[in-house]
Fold:
Amino acid sequence: MKSFLLIEDDDIFNFIHNQIIIQALPDAKITIFKYAQQALDYLISDSANMPDVIFLDLNMPEMNGFEFIDLLMDHFDQDSITSKLYLVSSTLDHRDKDRAKSYSCVNGLIDKPLSTRFIESIFSDN
Structure:
């Protein structure tokens, strides 16, 4: 069973992405947080919580995606971040793409909404 962590402040995207993941992988375990700090606390509280994939909204109130990654990397060494981490955004500014590439733990910056094809492609190498 693959596990996913969705960090997204928009309930509609949480619903859509949850349904897309279930459609691609019916037995997936999906954990959703609307606030990045809650997700960070969840991961820090027990390193066994590290999911296979993290979908992180780039633009959120209180803490954006880049701030979340910075704090995540402050708490975990690079080797312990075993999740495939994807930044998700509805606007793909070239500056965000460049900044995302500067993080070795980020697997990509993708446009909303997710697709079943993309979910399936994440694990096609395994």
In short: The chain has one domain: 3-122.
